[in-house]
């Protein structure tokens, strides 16, 4: 369903991704771990073209972009709709209420009817446990609540795959659980997810597979129990030792 | 000073004359404000603001050509006196066969001026909005224009309101320059009145007071709008 082929990304002289190849099946939950600077976040941002890869190709649900040629803006916009992005710093729209944040995409981008969207958005906010906060502005919500609005906002576009970029890294420890719970529920519903995170418990409990990245390449990919107990690669072992 | 005050209070006839002039000139001054100063300010500010947004967008665009045009425009307007610009438009252009009505000339001059100065305010405000806001917009499938209109400009408006209010209040007073291109706004009215009675101090002070009152109301309006735009922070 998702396939990344020979993906390279260079920032000036710095090569961050050095040939990423990855296949993800529908409904799979993939957790990406690795040291900082390993290219995890860049790979995720390439998947929704917030970064334009230097070369390589990505395809999601039959739509593909080949970055070896120049890619037209229009196909980037329609490609982006296949993915929902959850940011480390939430990036909610501060001038809009929780409900308006969630409604924005369907109403403005898809041009759907406001009353229908309102009901759908309300249901999504209830699903992430914020049914009583729909008229709050982001500044009136805690970090965990804001991130849950962020998840609802991404879900409102009905994406094929959800991308999470360290969704709990900016949160106070006691607020991490509520966000992870929403993510686990999503995983159980069969949502395809790629999650960059340092939460090893989430990886153990919710991931179908774990990918270890280092130096711009995928070093190892395996089931969580395998990778955490018997990592094959030396680099994976070293990293896991450092964080555990 | 003492002589002037003495001449007013020691001589009841002169006092009566001054009170009479103050009263009779009030309406013509207000008429100048209502018919010309205020419309000139509002029209020029609206056109100027549109110019300013376009100029700011050109400056932050990746199109070199647009950037250069915007830079030259801002540099030329900021580098030359407003009074000289008004003279070029009203007295200069007829030399090449372009004759423009006084009020329109003033609107052109003031709009160009507001456009240049406010573009810098708006550019700074747009750049002050975190990059993550653009990305969040793009991530839900928005185009550049949609993200700009729905996400960036509303937030930039809040940031730029105080400095833009400053520009607006300055513009109210700058419109007095339109008197030199024959627009009968409030200050030109004052000049006409004093030409007949020579009571410069009284009539010009009266005009100053009216400017002050207008600007005071604008400050109140600014406070009201700031509170409205701040409701989400």
Written description of the protein model:
The complex is a heterodimer of chains A (244) and B (233). In chain A, 39% of the residues lie in helices and 25% in strands. Chain A is α/β, with parallel strands linked by helices. In chain A, the strands form two sheets. A six-stranded mixed sheet of chain A has the order 6-7-8-3-9-10, with helices on both faces. In chain A, helix 3 (98-109) crosses helix 4 and helix 4 packs across helix 5. The two termini of chain A are 33 Å apart. Helices cover 82% and strands 0% of the residues of chain B. Chain B contains nine helices and no strands. Chain B has helices spanning 2-9, 12-60, 64-78, 82-92, 102-128, 131-139, 144-174, 186-197, 200-229. The longest helix of chain B has 49 residues, at 12-60. The mean pLDDT of chain B is 94. The A-B interface holds A 48, 50, 73, 77-78, 80-81, 83-85, 87, 89, 91-96, 104-105, 108-110, 137-139, 153-154, 156-157 and B 130, 132-133, 135-136, 138-143, 146, 150-151, 154-155, 158, 231-233. Chain A: It is found in: Cell membrane. Chain A: GO terms for molecular function: ABC-type amino acid transporter activity; ATP binding; ATP hydrolysis activity. Chain A: Keywords: ATP-binding, Cell membrane, Membrane, Nucleotide-binding, Transport.
Largest interface: A-B, 30 and 20 residues
The count of strands of chain A amounts to 10
| Helix/strand structural class of chain A | alpha/beta
Oligomer: heterodimer
Strand content of chain A: 25-35%
Helix proportion of residues of chain A, in percent? 25-40%
Overall SS class of chain B: mainly alpha
GO molecular function (chain A): ABC-type amino acid transporter activity; ATP binding; ATP hydrolysis activity
GO cellular component, one term (chain A): plasma membrane
Keywords (chain A): ATP-binding, Cell membrane, Membrane, Nucleotide-binding, Transport
Main location (chain A): membrane
């Amino acid at each position: 369903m998702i396939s990344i082929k020979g993906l390279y990304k260079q920032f000036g002289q710095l090569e961050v991704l050095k040939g990423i190849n990855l296949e993800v099946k529908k409904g799979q939950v993939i957790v990406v771990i690795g040291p900082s600077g390993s290219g995890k976040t860049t790979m995720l941002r390439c998947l929704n073209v917030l970064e334009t890869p230097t070369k390589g190709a990505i395809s999601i649900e039959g739509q593909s972009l080949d970055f070896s040629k120049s890619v037209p803006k229009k196909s980037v916009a329609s490609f982006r709709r296949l993915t929902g992005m959850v940011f480390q710093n939430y990036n909610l729209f501060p001038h809009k209420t929780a409900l308006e944040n969630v409604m924005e995409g369907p109403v403005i981008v898809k041009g759907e009817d406001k009353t229908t969207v309102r009901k759908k958005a309300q249901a999504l906010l209830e699903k992430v446990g914020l049914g009583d906060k729909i008229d709050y502005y982001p500044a009136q919500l805690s970090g965990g609540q804001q991130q849950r609005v962020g998840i609802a906002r991404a879900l409102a576009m009905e994406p094929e795959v959800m991308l999470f970029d360290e969704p709990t890294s900016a949160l106070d420890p006691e607020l991490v659980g509520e966000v992870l719970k929403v993510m686990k529920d999503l995983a159980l519903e069969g949502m395809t997810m790629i999650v960059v995170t340092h939460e090893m418990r989430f990886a153990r409990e919710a991931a179908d597979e774990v990918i270890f990245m280092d130096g711009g390449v995928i070093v190892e990919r395996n089931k969580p129990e395998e990778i955490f107990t018997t990592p094959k690669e030396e680099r994976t072992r070293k990293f896991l030792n450092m964080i555990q | 000073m003492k002589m002037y005050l003495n001449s007013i209070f020691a001589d009841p006839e002169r006092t009566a004359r001054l009170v009479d002039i103050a009263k009779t000139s009030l309406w013509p001054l207000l008429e100048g404000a209502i018919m010309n100063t205020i419309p000139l300010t509002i029209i020029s500010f609206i056109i100027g603001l549109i110019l300013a947004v376009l100029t700011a967008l050109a400056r932050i665009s990746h199109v070199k050509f647009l950037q250069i045009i915007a830079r030259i425009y801002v540099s030329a307007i900021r580098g030359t006196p407003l009074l000289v610009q008004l003279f070029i438009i009203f007295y200069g252009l007829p030399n090449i066969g372009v004759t423009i009505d006084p009020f329109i000339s003033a609107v052109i001059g003031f709009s160009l001026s507001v456009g240049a100065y406010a573009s810098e305010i708006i550019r700074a405000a747009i750049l002050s909005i975190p990059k993550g806001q653009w990305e969040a917009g793009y991530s839900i499938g928005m185009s550049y224009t949609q993200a700009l209109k729905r996400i960036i400009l509303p937030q930039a408006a809040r940031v730029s309101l105080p400095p833009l209010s400053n520009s607006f209040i300055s513009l109210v007073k700058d419109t007095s320059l339109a008197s030199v291109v024959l627009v009968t706004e409030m200050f030109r009215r004052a000049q006409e009145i004093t030409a007949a009675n020579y009571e410069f101090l009284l009539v010009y002070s009266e005009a100053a007071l009216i400017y002050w009152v207008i600007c005071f109301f604008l400050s109140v309006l600014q406070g009201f709008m700031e509170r409205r735009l701040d409701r989400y922070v």
